[in-house]
Write a structure and sequence with these properties.
Layout (H helix, E strand, L loop, with lengths): L7 H13 L7 H5 L10 H18 L1 H4 L4 H21 L5 H32 L2 H10 L5 H15 L5 H16 L3 H20 L6 H8 L12 H16 L20 H21 L4 H22 L1 E8 L2 E8 L4 H6 L3 H20 L1 H13 L1 H12 L4 H11 L5 H13 L9 H9 L6 H6 L1 H18 L6
Antiparallel strand pairs: 1-2
Helix pairs in contact: 1-17, 3-5, 3-16, 5-6, 5-16, 6-13, 6-14, 6-16, 7-9, 8-9, 8-10, 8-12, 9-10, 9-21, 10-12, 10-20, 11-19, 12-23, 13-14, 16-19, 17-18, 17-19, 18-19, 18-20, 19-20, 20-23
């Protein structure tokens, strides 16, 4: 990118980018408010930035402080909007700020309900042992270490577009740990591969990552257009995987006997989840209703099937013990609301704080300034490529939220580019995505920040290759 030749104006862009990285989502109504005040030079503007940066610093220190990430951003959102409301009230305007925050709450409501349905289905599949059975099958097949390296990576790539990348990464890491727990080199390389694969797999699916979901729900890119990123995403995964696999042993690990059977109704729930996704797409594509309406309709499928499972109650299962088949009877009742209760509430409330904070910062006027500096001074291609690098340091969700709030004039190809880079850029560092952070805890001591950093140049090679592949394959979309 020829960083040595950057002008002073471009350094200002980097500064704005760093600020913007801490300013997430959709303040479209805020930006369009007729009576919007420019508060970028006002003490309220400076205070709002300081409050949000401080809150996000606490979010990034969650692992050390053990303070849930939702708490500081919810408080920051309330204080920022209080300050904004006071300024507008002092100027005799009681409508602009109210309309802006209501719009932000609506945006959050759609995202909240959509994710809640998806999380409920994932929890139901986990309780029915769908993921446990897959893990059991993998660890008992006697694959070589190199075969497992590729199998877990490929499965992570193809599961993450449907399940979230965090769940996918944890599942595949459990397989790696079960088979090669004492082989730290194998575990480290496999975990890096899983993180890269899970993030790449989520980049080409509207359901695969929060960033792609936001772009789809915003209506900027339609459902099927995201799949134009499939080949660039494959390249992003395959380039580093092919290089790292050369350092993975072909040795055969000790065979493990593990037999976990799926509970009754497991595959039916998987089918209902696919049907729910189809319903959401149909609502959006054919009758032009928000996808969340289709997702909530799909939740009713699980609710009614849960009623059937609850009535059924009693069932038998068979598992292997000491080479013999053992039958067990169970009296277990399926409770759909228990699956709702197990959703990632901290994450859902975190999104509320993030969305409201950026809504306020957008109303203040900072994101309009950042958009002009990024997409006018640098141009969309360089700016969108930098977004991916930024997302390896700061979580990709606030970065993408900031871009959506700026809402720059871009071609479909450029929107797909920023979707790709925000999704896969988090793989450059272990702290750049939820999957990487989670695996550092799960494979503590084997998969580390510096272990991942050692392979960052190889991952960057895949990152750059995926960008060029997208610009070549989908060149017609850049017009």
């Amino acid at each position: 990118m020829q960083l040595m030749n950057l002008s002073f104006g471009t350094y200002r862009v980097w500064l704005i980018l760093w600020i913007t990285a801490f300013l997430p989502i959709n303040a479209v109504a805020s930006e369009g408010a007729m009576n919007r005040l420019d508060l970028t030079g006002h003490w309220v503007g400076y205070a709002a930035i300081a409050i949000f940066v401080a809150a996000y610093a606490l979010v990034m220190a969650e692992e050390f402080l053990h303070l849930r990430k939702s708490k500081p951003v919810i408080l920051a959102a309330g204080v920022i909007w209080l300050l904004i409301g006071l300024v507008y009230a002092q100027n005799g305007d009681t409508k602009t700020a109210e309309e802006a925050i209501r719009h932000n709450i609506l945006e959050y409501g759609e995202l909240f309900l959509f994710l809640l349905v998806a999380m409920t289905y994932i929890n139901a599949m986990e309780e029915r042992q769908v993921f446990g059975a897959l893990k059991s099958w993998l660890v008992s097949k006697g694959f070589s270490l190199r075969q497992l390296f590729w199998i877990t990576g490929i499965l992570a790539f193809f599961i993450s577009p449907i399940a979230d990348n965090l769940t996918t990464a944890l599942l595949m890491c459990a397989v790696v740990m079960a088979v090669g727990g004492d082989n730290k080199k194998f575990v480290m390389l496999s975990c890096i591969n899983i993180v890269v694969a899970a993030n790449a797999g989520g980049a080409f699916s509207p359901f695969g990552d929060i960033t792609t979901l936001m772009v789809w729900q915003k209506g900027i890119v339609d459902f099927w257009t995201f799949f134009a990123l499939f080949i660039p995403a494959v390249i992003n995964f395959l380039v580093p995987a092919a290089i790292m696999s050369l350092w993975v042993s072909k040795g055969q690990p000790e065979a493990l006997e593990e037999d976990i059977a799926m509970k009754p109704g497991a595959m039916t729930i998987v089918v209902l989840f696919v049907l729910t996704i189809a319903t959401a797409v149909s609502f959006h594509n054919f009758v032009h209703l928000p996808p969340v309406a289709g997702m909530m309709t799909g939740l009713s499928y699980l609710m009614f099937y849960g009623y059937f499972l609850k009535k059924r109650g009693h069932y038998q299962s068979t598992h292997s013990s000491g080479g013999e088949l053992v039958k067990e009877s169970h009296d277990e009742y399926f409770d759909i609301f228990n699956k709702v209760k197990l959703a990632e509430w901290d994450t859902l409330f975190f999104f509320y704080g993030v969305i409201l904070c950026v809504g306020g910062l957008g109303l203040i006027g900072y994101l309009s300034l950042a958009s002009e500096l990024m997409y006018t001074d640098l141009g969309p291609t360089l700016a969108n490529s930098m977004v991916g690098v930024l997302s390896s340091i700061v979580d990709n969700i606030p970065v993408m939220f900031a871009v959506l709030t700026m809402n720059p004039e871009m071609s479909t190809g450029q929107w797909l580019l920023v979707t790709l880079t925000a999704g896969v850029g988090g793989s450059l560092l272990s702290i750049g995505s939820a999957a990487g952070v989670a695996l550092m805890g799960q494979a503590r001591g084997a998969y580390t920040f510096f272990g991942h950093l050692k392979w960052a140049p190889v991952i960057a090679l895949g990152y750059v290759a995926s960008i060029y592949a997208h610009m070549w394959i989908n060149a017609a979309m850049f017009d």
